[in-house]
Amino acid sequence: MNQLSEFINKTTEISIQTQNEILITIIIILTLSIFRFLVLRLVWRKTKDVKIRYQWNRSLSFIIPFTGIILIGAVWVPAFEQFGTFLGIITAGLAIALKDPIANLAGWLFILIRKPFVIGDRVQVGIHTGDIIDIRLFQFTMLEIGNWVEADQSTGRIIHIPNGKVFLEPQANYSTGFEYIWNELKVLITFESDWTKAKTILEEIVYKYNKDIGHKAQKEILEASKNYLIYYKHLTPIVYTAVKENGVQLTLRYLCNPRMRRGSENEIWENILTQFGTIKEIDFAYPTTRFYKQNERV
Predict the structure, then answer these.
(1) What pTM value is reported for the model?
(2) Are 203 and 239 in contact, with CB atoms under 8 Å apart?
(3) CA angle 185-190-196, nearest 5°?
(4) What is the pLDDT of residues 198-253, one digit of tens each?
(5) Whole-angstrom Cα distance, residue 221 to residue 146?
(6) d(Cα 206, Cα 227) in Å, to the nearest integer?
(7) What is the topology classification, in CATH, of domain 111-173?
(8) Are 123 and 173 in contact (CB under 8 A)?
(9) CB of 124 within 8 A of CB of 142?
């Protein structure tokens, strides 16, 4: 081994000490790679849950490189001590030139530590809304919802957003803290309709849909109050009455899971159409034009 080191030294002029450092670096890289391979192989055997597999894969993708940098740095740092001033100047220059990547790296640390959102959350960042499907060193990825698609359903597009945006754009989280959102449906009926009967029917429909959610939401609020000042006096659904230009507007306000908003609207509207269709005293209103003559309506 010594003869090989001396041969390499004479041939390439690489010192024996530097050769040892290169060898240790290779060993560290191989060891960490083998460790990652074995752990992932064990996880793949033990579970078929896609989410668990993904979490292990992403966690090791952060831990292994970070550990490698520390170990390899411990090997090579003594060799660069004499270049401290030079490295300081280079670092300052890189900080200016790489302002955006550094901001994205800081954003990544903020996301990991402060957790404004985690993988699986439904969030809105600036004008973009979607489900978080990946978080990396310089960007996070969401599966877009909304845009040209109604009722918060997926568009199929994947959006990559720089991590630094968490310092520049507000983030609205649909999932963390309180799992439910308030949704409203507006039902407009004519002035001639029996609005009290219509309101009673709507209350029965929305209460039937919302009967199990109120209790679950109350537990969620108690849990969320440990970290946030969330306070609701009433969690039960309600129907509000208002007079509009074309008729009486009855607004259903109820809690629903953000991922089931369109499904809840579909179910409630089908019940409304079915029940209103059997009652002659209730008619839906729509923009109309009426002409009047003295003592006569046309």
Answers:
(1) 0.61
(2) yes
(3) 70
(4) 999 999 999 888 877 767 777 777 666 666 666 666 778 899 999 988 899 999 99
(5) 27
(6) 30
(7) SH3 type barrels. (2.30.30)
(8) yes
(9) no
Mode of pairing for the β-strands spanning 122-125 and 128-135: antiparallel
Q: Rounded CA gap, 74 and 88, in Å?
A: 18
- The owner of tokens 């007079």 is 243
Q: pLDDT tens digits for 53-85?
A: 777 777 777 788 878 887 877 776 665 554 455
Q: Looking at residues 145-168, what average pLDDT do you find?
A: 87
Nearby residues of 127 by Cβ (< 8 Å), 6 or more positions away: none
Q: Hey, which CATH number is domain 181-276, 3.40.50.80, 3.30.70.100, 3.10.620.30, 3.60.150.10?
A: 3.30.70.100
* C-beta neighbour count of 4 within 10 angstroms: 9
Best CA proximity match to 63, nearest among 162, 137, 164: 137
Q: Residue 132 pairs with which residues in a beta bridge?
A: 142
Is the pLDDT at 295 greater than 60? The verdict is yes
Where does residue 162 rank: exposed (0-12), middle (13-18), buried (19+ CB within 10 A)?
middle
Q: Reply yes or no on whether the pLDDT at 21 is more than 80.
A: no
What pLDDT score was predicted for residue 148?
A: 82
